[in-house]
Amino acid sequence: MSLRHRNFRNYRQERSLTQFRVVVAAVVVLLLVGVLIARLFYLQVLEYDLYQTKANDNRLMLVTEQPPRGLIYDRHGLVLADNRPIHSLTVIPERIKDFTELKNVLSGIIEINDAEWQQFDNKRKEYRRPYQSITLKSQLTDEEWARVSVDLYKLDGVQVEAQLTRYYPYGEAFAHAIGYVGRITERDLERVDKTAYQGALFIGKTGIEGYYENVLFGKTGLSTVEVNARGRIMSEVDRQNPTPGKDLHLYLDARLQQYAYDLLGEYRGSVIAIDPDTGGILALVSKPGFDPNLFVRGISVKDYSVLRDSKQLPLFNRALRGGYPPASTIKPFMALAGLEYGFSSWSERYYAQGYYQINPGGRRYRDWLRGGHGWINLERSIIESVDTYYYQLANKMGITPIHDFLTRFGFGQGVLLDLHGESVGLLPSNEWKKAKYKEPWYPGDSVNVGIGQGFMVSTPMQIATATSILANRGHYYRPRMTESINDEPMQFEDGTGDMHQVVLKDQRNWEKMVNAMRKVITDSKGTARRLRGTDYTIAGKTGTGQVFSLQEDEEYEADKLAQRLHDHALFIGFAPSDKPKISVFAIFENGGSSSKPADLSRQLFDAYLSGEYPEKYDYLKGKSDE
Q1: Is 328 an annotated catalytic residue?
Q2: What's the average model confidence in pLDDT over 605-619?
Q3: Which one of 328, 458, 577, 583 is the catalytic residue?
């Protein structure tokens, strides 16, 4: 074959191969283009909604806005729990590259303690929405605000935010009634909607603040904002404004509350005043108290240790949880029980010789008046507070009728409608003693209960409630703090807020007992005769609660005892006695003489019924007082 022919054949082969390669390449390109088109169709058409949402997630961000907390007012419109604007240092964690560096930089500008850093670290590890700011240091001082503001431009992710914080203008006298808000903990989040509390710093802990948390908190607002690649907010796309919490209007009278607190003086104790017509609590005092503002922003370890370790127990709510022997304040109820079950009568006479014996030659249960009261009847047993009358009455009755009757008045059970943490005290029974001590109930146990001592333990709230029922002649409303939410009257479920009634077999006994309690003040031998001289009538009963037991013939000598061993001093009363507007229970822990709570109650009656308080309480006048 010639050279020329061979070259031509090679040329044709190379050309064919080239053409084949071109075709293959074209096919590959077409396939790739087809795949690309298919992928684009899949992404932009079939999966449009999914990727549009993801794109929006990269571009849009949800920001929560906490609602203003509802305010708390007293019965005259005085604000007892307010909101005040503050400035807080907040951080958006997603915009921080190095937290160690951030800590070093900020520590050179203002003081941020270890507890604040720890709390911040805990918060950023919890679930939250992306780019949601977390408070690092709250309530900046003017100086701190100024120092941070100077360097804010170079602190990416750090900002100063205006916030509202709770403020209690009247301090410790109201602490146990109003309660306080504090920083939210993991335990708090278990009892609320976590979504609703995203970004929230505070939650109601105790008192009214804790009980009505759902009402006071309101509804969180949500804003959809557009952010750039660095997470900085560029514009607001959509907004749902927060719904402010609802305001609470209490039955509490601020002037009466502060006045009662002050009248306790240096003593520990409690005072509770109730309007018998409504069950509204006019004053709920536990002394000593504490400054609730300390807890709002997170109390320091030092400050908390002072309160926790104090022998005065300022954090202990005596009004709801204090356990005391009701002492002689139980006698009107014991007398009514005796009448109800036929163990006594108004006309029957009894010789009070100064002591009582269950069995001849047995232990002598002494009367407070060693020489005895002589011949008396039921009425005089109330007027002169004759112990031996109630020793013998309780022994005749036995514990079961006593237990059943006192239960009608709220002893041994929770009585309050709208505060948490109430103790039920102890109203003993035969069954209780068998379960507790593996022993039967003895007659001597009944004798002690007859004068409100022995196993019986009551709270100030229980005794105050029973007093209010007696004042209203058996018609009563369970005690409550809140009168209305915004302008709507407060409603309680299951009829608990409705009127109830203690019905006696002989309803005339109510008025006869009230008359006997009037004579406690007006009679020349009445144990509260020092309260005479008012232009309105008072019905009352004194009481002296033993802190420790005396031996059979041992004398009580207060001047030889430490203050902590002195008797508790108690008083129950209401006024005007014919149509009461206020009933009061007062106790001075280790107060000794019952004249102290009686005098306190008289001063509260005078002020409340006349509306005239010492001038120093004018600052507590509400709108309806002016």
Answers
A1: yes
A2: 96
A3: 328
